[in-house]
Amino acid sequence: MTPRIGFTGDVMLGRLVDDRQRRRAVDAVWGDVLDRLRALDGLVINLECVLSTRGQQWRRTHRPFHFRADPDWAVPALERAGVDVCALANNHVLDYEEAALRDTIDHLDEAGIAHAGAGETIDEALDPAAVSIADLDVAVVSFTDNTPEYAADEESPGTAWIDVTVDDGKTRRRVREALDRSRESDTDLLVASLHWGPNMVTEPPDTFGEFGRWLVEEGVDLIHGHSAHVFQGIEVHEGAPIVYDAGDFVDDYAVDAELRNDRGFLFELAVTEAGTPTELRLHPTEIEGCAVHEASSEAAAWSREVMRDRSAEFGTTFDRDGEALVLPLEG
């Protein structure tokens, strides 16, 4: 059997999602996508909230939104979906300051869900998430260029923060350190999960392309981008897919009628038993009622057309299989 690993955009379980989940089944947040998630061999998400009931809202700098979810339901929900790795390098892991970040890490550890991108110090934040998926050794490193005030340092908790736009060597040295750590365990598949760029932007800047291609040349097998709240195009470089932005997977956000941030995909990567990517399959999804669902035919058609258009500038073309787009990565 070909190992298949799923990747999602932002999973935000706070605010109205948290409120609704207190009155419905633990796995209701996954809607009718749950069976598809559970059928995967592995699942990697960007967790866009903290898992805690403690802490106070960050007020040291202006932050308009603060996201946290009650771990009593949120952790079992992640377990029901089969989440293996949570990327934590994003602009919400300190929304309720250090206590809630520590709770999040503790709850994930207790559940056996690996995480990367945030920690008690920058040293911990740089540690890759190492998991075994279908007999593959998979490593995920996680970075963000959002919210520099949330950055960890040698003495303070926070994120693995980088500046992608400045080529002064510091960013690449920091990233290379995390990549080197991942190789210490003889990794079969190496993923870089990047929370980068501004919201509601449909195209990545040139600097992201340069950085993404550099990561591939450094040995990364897939770039798992997120942050924009809308999906962006996909580039393939040396056989590795660069998903510049996976969009949103589940949240309670207001929907832009033109950009349709409620529409997106579950990205399913097929790999060989040696860990070589062979195919990326995009299953259309949409958010409704603070839950993720299989996209309607109309929404799926819209997402396929938009993904084709946004990927065309990279020379990327897709096949079609039912409602899904298929991107072959071999030959």
Jot down its keywords.
single chain; 331 residues; alpha/beta; Purple Acid Phosphatase, chain A, domain 2; 10-stranded mixed sheet; 6-stranded mixed sheet; 30% strand; globular; Metallo-depent_PP-like; CW_Biosynth-Accessory; CapA family protein; Capsule_synth_CapA
Which fold name is given in CATH as the topology? Purple Acid Phosphatase, chain A, domain 2
Helix content: 25-40%
Radius of gyration: 18 Å
How many angstroms separate the termini? 20 Å
Give me the number of helical elements.
8
Topology as H/E string?
Answer: EHHEEEHEHEEHEEEHEHEEEEEEEHEE
The residue-averaged pLDDT reads 97
Percentage beta strand = 25-35%
| Poorly predicted spans | none
In the CATH hierarchy, the architecture is 4-Layer Sandwich
- Integer count of domains: 1
Give the CATH level 1 class. Alpha Beta
**Biggest beta sheet summary:** 10 strands, mixed
Q: Judging from the principal axes of the Cα atoms, what is the shape?
A: globular
Task: Please report the total strand number as a whole number.
Answer: 20
Q: From the helix content, strand content and strand pairing, which structural class follows?
A: alpha/beta
Pfam families: PGA_cap
Family: Belongs to the CapA family.
Domain Capsule synthesis protein CapA: 4-253
Protein name: CapA family protein
